[in-house]
Amino acid sequence: MAVTQLPPMALSAVSDDGGATQGILRRQALRESAARTYARALPIVPVRARGMTIEGADGRRYLDCLSGAGALALGHNHPVVLEAIRAVLDSEAPLQVLDLATPVKDAFTDELFATLPPGLAAGARVQFCGPAGTDAVEAALKLVRIATGRDGLLAFTGAYHGMTAGALAASGGAPAASVTRLPFPYDYRCPFGAGGERGAELSARWAENLLDDPKGGVPDPAGMILEPVQGEGGVIPAPDGWLLRMREITAARSIPLIADEVQTGVGRTGAFWAVDHSGVVPDVMVLSKAIGGGLPLAVVVYREELDAWPPGAHAGTFRGNQLAMAAGTATLAYVRENHLAQRAAVVGRRMLERLRRFAAGRPQIGEVRGRGLMIGLELVAPEAGPTAKAGGIAETGAVTEARTMAEAGTMAEAGQAGSPARVGPAARVGPVADADWEGTSGGTTPYGASRRAVAPGEVPPCEGAWLTGAEGEGTRGALSGDARQVLGGGVSYAGVTRTTAPSADPALAAAVQQECLRRGLIVELGGRHDAVIRLLPPLTITDEQTEAVLDRLADALDAAIRTSGTRSRSGEVPPAADPFAPPFTGNRH
């Protein structure tokens, strides 16, 4: 793929002193609401964009790893998207038709169904919703409640499903009597203090036991909603085997499984849909963002047997957006025909490997994790000790109690920000997306997912990523189940002790974001404490752009670490990069 370039901007559109930019930003601050978010951290005024490059009103150019929060699978103003939009405009077709049938809508539906998991596409129905993912979530919750006659909902800690009332109720941290919150397998800060396969197994057992407990206090669930990779929650991939286990648990109890693929869909994670990694076929899929090619569009796709709602049960004026459907058709087809999901897997793995090498000497980078081109770096304060949260209960105590009970074969609840151990100096490596663990065959996980065989006494790959040798190198060695024993705030594994993860460092993350911006790189923050640097580049990112992103991010991290007064594990301040370097303004990227 050719490097995306922008031709020189007309001088009349550029302020040579940035005065126009400051004036626009000042008027925005005076006139827009206090609820604005991105504009506070990213004080830029975009005037043109192509591919991965954004140009501001002051003439500065940036590499965009935000991509409209993942909505721009092909980057800005991709030619196939622009061509599709112009074709609709030139045809004089109606732009807004409510839910009437049109050739544009028919073509979009054909292309969408061609990409769906075959087990769902064969008998699927689609509901076009208001043009936002949160409305599609509302529609999905309404659908399963009508179809089942039940009102309860199963959701997960750390989840984010949107900003409307029902979607918020299903998101992590929102109190709602009809929503039962289950522990998501957050490997780095496992609520059970176990992590890896063991932590995921305990999460699944918790869900199953709670549903089967007549005194569990769970309202009869109409559905279970989950994200295959928690995005806003901190880029936390769900283990494939755990997803299969959730499918088994819900299917056995006639509970519809809802996969929220608003951000993970259309090749983002290295498969067209994130559920494709595990082979899970959900009953309902919530889709938005990239399916509209950068324009507002949201749908719910579901099994036809759930299609029990009456006419008008869910409606919306702008559910007939013809431009978005045309752009979406072009985007879906381009991603499919050009195998961009597979490319995202390759490029994402390469980015993860380089970031993990970079993190190995910097304790401020607690974990590098992700899947495909959905990547996160969790930043921590190594000297501050474990995070204290969960209603005033010190997490070390809560986690120790949960770990003790878990190791004894029982279940105990701990705060969602509970911390698993990190061993030795090496940063955590995100075992779910580990190259040695994905795509292998033979053997099974505790949930029946196909994986390579694990010899007796050997550490399963996901758990092996937790262990480090005496030299601080990541190792995978033998581990006897009998060797596990609780030792205060950690767990001993064959002589290696885990300690609780350090506190999140949102101040450092904010500093890194600003240092990135100064170097011409746009990144997003996320996670429980806004301490995760998130990378969501377009699927069309070139090799040259990939290297530029990694170089700028590494420089920004070191500059922010140096400014914060923290030091690398070696005790030396990382080599200086000019912290005042202007954003890149050339045409290479």
Task: List key phrases describing it.
disordered C terminus; pyridoxal phosphate; 589 residues; PyrdxlP-dep_Trfase_small; single chain; globular; Dat; aminotransferase; transferase
Biggest sheet: strands side by side, in what order?
Answer: 4-12-11-10-7-5-6
Helix content: 25-40%
Which class do the helix and strand fractions yield? alpha+beta
Give the termini distance in whole angstroms.
Answer: 12 Å
Query: Strand count, sense and closure of the main sheet?
Result: 7 strands, mixed
Strand content: 15-25%
Mean pLDDT: 78
| Poorly predicted parts | 1-5, 7-16, 388-498, 566-589
Q: What gyration radius follows from the Cα positions, in whole Å?
A: 24 Å
InterPro entries: Aminotrans_3, Aminotrans_3_PPA_site, Dat, PyrdxlP-dep_Trfase, PyrdxlP-dep_Trfase_major, PyrdxlP-dep_Trfase_small
Pathway: Amine and polyamine biosynthesis; ectoine biosynthesis; L-ectoine from L-aspartate 4-semialdehyde: step 1/3
Cofactor: pyridoxal 5'-phosphate
Keywords: Aminotransferase, Pyridoxal phosphate, Transferase
Task: Give your account of this protein's structure.
The chain is of the alpha+beta class and 589 residues long. The chain is built from 16 helices and 23 strands. It has a 7-stranded mixed beta sheet. Strands 13, 14, 20, 22 and 23 form a 5-stranded antiparallel beta sheet that branches. A hairpin with a 2-residue loop joins strand 16 and strand 17. Helix 4 packs antiparallel against helix 11, helix 9 packs parallel to helix 10 and helix 15 packs across helix 16. The longest helix has 22 residues. It is globular. The relative contact order is 0.14. The N terminus and C terminus are likely disordered.
